[in-house]
Specification:
Length: 64
C-alpha cells in the first residue's frame, strides 16, 4: 500500500493545477451570460406551455 505523504500530495495538486487551461475573463462572462439567457428562455417557454395546458384542461373538464 502506498505511503500517505500530504506534502507530496500538495505538490502534485499544484503541478496539475498549473497544467489546467483556465478560461479568460471574457470567456467566463460570455458563457455565464449565455447560461442565464438560456435559463430565462426555458423558463418563459415552460410558462407558456403550462398556461396552454391549463387552458386546454379547463376546456376539456369545464372547470373555471
Amino acid at each position: 500500500m502506498a505511503k500517505l505523504d500530504p506534502a507530496q500530495f500538495v505538490r502534485e495538486v499544484r503541478q496539475e493545477v498549473g497544467r489546467v487551461t483556465w478560461p479568460s475573463r471574457k470567456e467566463t462572462l460570455v458563457t455565464t451570460g449565455l447560461v442565464l439567457a438560456m435559463s430565462a428562455l426555458a423558463a418563459v417557454f415552460f410558462l407558456v406551455v403550462d398556461q396552454l395546458i391549463q387552458v386546454a384542461m379547463r376546456l376539456v373538464f369545464g372547470i373555471g
